[in-house]
């Protein structure tokens, strides 16, 4: 929380600290001035402590990318979005391309926007199906030129990144669901990062959909590897297999995403408490079912209905939504996702 007492973050130079404090107030004279002041302090510390121009160039570009992408997405924060990954090499006449185009068209019709990597192949199909108005492109600048595809090029929502880490941050930070079509190293990298961040609680819960045309064995082979090597050798738990869903039709993928947000709305951590914001209240009978089935993932106490907590008032986010509050162990995220899927079957 912002009002918690914390160690002062200063440069150690009184003259510089005063300039920073004045500049922060001039730039952002509201409740976030403390964060602006800390960022300016970090920049000043870099100038005082570092003589490595390469380091400074990297940090400078990374910060510029973060600022610009945040500016673009700010206007769309309350709109659900799906990020689509897949091969840049998929041909326009391939089943995967046609499937990605159809998926994007239908998910937009269901109130979502679409984020892609902005290139050719599956990325192009995603932007084409969604349409320019409901598309975002997060392109990467490569040694060999990769332009934004024609269905998003020139739009203000077509963003280019120098650094993969910034690009990948915004893929997850700004989306509510992940859909993975067959692809190469990049697709698998993005898929594993999604799974890792959700598995460790570093990303908000989300549906992760592995999709391929009927008859394709791409994800079947991947699941076989994950099961036989990662699960059976103990590198991940069996419950982690519940972090993703494998489907062969666009309709099933759409259903999985819509079902994930039928009752569940969003998550917030307040101190030791895990707060689930809901689209509709659950009866005491339904909450008892949750407690009976998932008490094992709680450190203490039980799952209880609640309104917004006092600590949530500052952010003013979704204060009117009903909530469930629990002392989740923040370890068993595979089972936590299973609980969310069960929760979404309740309240009918």
What would CATH call the class of the largest domain?
Answer: Alpha Beta
Largest sheet: 7 strands, parallel
Number of domains: 3
Q: Nearest-angstrom radius of gyration?
A: 22 Å
Describe the overall structure.
The protein has 348 residues and is of the alpha/beta class. It has three domains: 61 residues; 180 residues, Rossmann fold; 80 residues, no CATH class. The protein is 43% helix and 17% strand. The chain is built from eleven helices and eleven strands. The chain has a seven-stranded parallel β-sheet with strand order 4-3-2-1-5-6-7, with helices on both faces. A four-stranded antiparallel β-sheet has the order 8-9-11-10, with helices on one face. The protein is globular and about 65 Å long.
Brief synopsis:
The chain has 348 residues and is an alpha/beta fold. It has helices at 14-27, 33-49, 53-74, 95-109, 122-130, 164-173, 185-199, 218-231, 250-260, 284-294, 333-343, and strands spanning 81-85, 113-116, 135-140, 158-161, 177-180, 208-211, 245-247, 264-270, 273-278, 298-306, 323-328.
């Amino acid at each position: 929380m912002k009002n918690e007492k914390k160690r002062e973050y200063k440069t150690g130079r009184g003259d510089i600290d005063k300039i920073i404090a004045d500049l922060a107030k001039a730039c952002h004279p509201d409740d976030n001035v403390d964060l602006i002041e800390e960022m300016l302090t970090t920049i000043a510390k870099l100038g005082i402590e570092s003589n490595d121009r390469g380091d400074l160039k990297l940090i400078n570009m990374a910060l510029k990318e973060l600022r610009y992408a945040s500016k673009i997405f700010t206007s769309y924060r309350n709109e659900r979005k799906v990020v689509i990954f897949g091969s840049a090499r998929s041909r326009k006449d391939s089943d995967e391309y046609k499937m990605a185009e159809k998926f994007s068209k239908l998910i937009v019709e269901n109130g979502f926007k679409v984020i892609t990597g902005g290139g050719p192949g599956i990325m192009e199909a995603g932007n084409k199906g969604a349409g320019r108005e409901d598309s975002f492109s997060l392109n990467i600048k490569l040694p060999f030129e990769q332009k934004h595809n024609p269905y998003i090029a020139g739009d203000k929502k077509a963003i280019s990144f120098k650094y993969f880490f910034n690009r990948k941050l915004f893929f997850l930070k700004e989306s509510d669901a992940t859909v993975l079509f067959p692809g190469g190293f990049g697709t698998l990298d993005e898929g594993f990062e999604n799974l890792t961040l959700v598995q460790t609680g570093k990303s908000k819960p989300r549906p992760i959909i592995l999709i391929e045309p009927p008859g394709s064995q791409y994800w079947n082979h991947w699941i076989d590897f994950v099961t036989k090597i990662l699960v059976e050798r103990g590198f991940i738990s069996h419950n982690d297999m519940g972090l993703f869903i494998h489907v062969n039709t666009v309709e099933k993928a759409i259903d999985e995403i819509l079902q994930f947000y039928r009752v569940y709305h969003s998550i917030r951590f307040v101190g030791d408490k895990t707060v689930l914001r809901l689209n509709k209240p659950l009866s005491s009978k339904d909450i008892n079912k949750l407690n009976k089935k998932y008490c094992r993932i709680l450190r203490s106490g039980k799952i209880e209905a609640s309104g917004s907590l006092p600590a949530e008032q500052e952010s003013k986010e979704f204060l009117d939504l009903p909530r469930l509050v629990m002392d989740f162990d923040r370890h068993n995220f595979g089972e936590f996702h299973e609980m969310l899927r069960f929760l979404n079957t309740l309240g009918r």
